[in-house]
Amino acid sequence: MRIDLPVRRHSRLSLTPLIDVIFLLLLFFMLSSTFSRYSEIAVAGGGGAAGPASRPDVILSVARDGLKLNGMVSPLTEIDGRLADLKEAGAERLLVIVEGDAASQDFVAAIAEARKSEMPMTVARRQR
Hints:
5-stranded mixed sheet; alpha/beta
């Protein structure tokens, strides 16, 4: 005796669950990523062995507790104006000293403000 098996119908795959999973993954990665905007600055490499360096006219110190311009505490928003005043008074060279505990973003922000003065800049790092 012969028994016929029921014919299997091929159902179409639904793309709706796949699209749902893709959107859930997209939502997860968007919400788990950081929304910080990072800035990029160009820093020139060190030059060759030149003659003896002269003393800088202005010293900007970047540390965890804030910025100091020629030894006086200065907020970031005032750096540009104070450097412009010092440049008008005859300052020609700027030395930026980065303390070992300074945050990278503070350093980048200080460099960006100092660049507005268009003074030649030297960067040094101090370890603690």
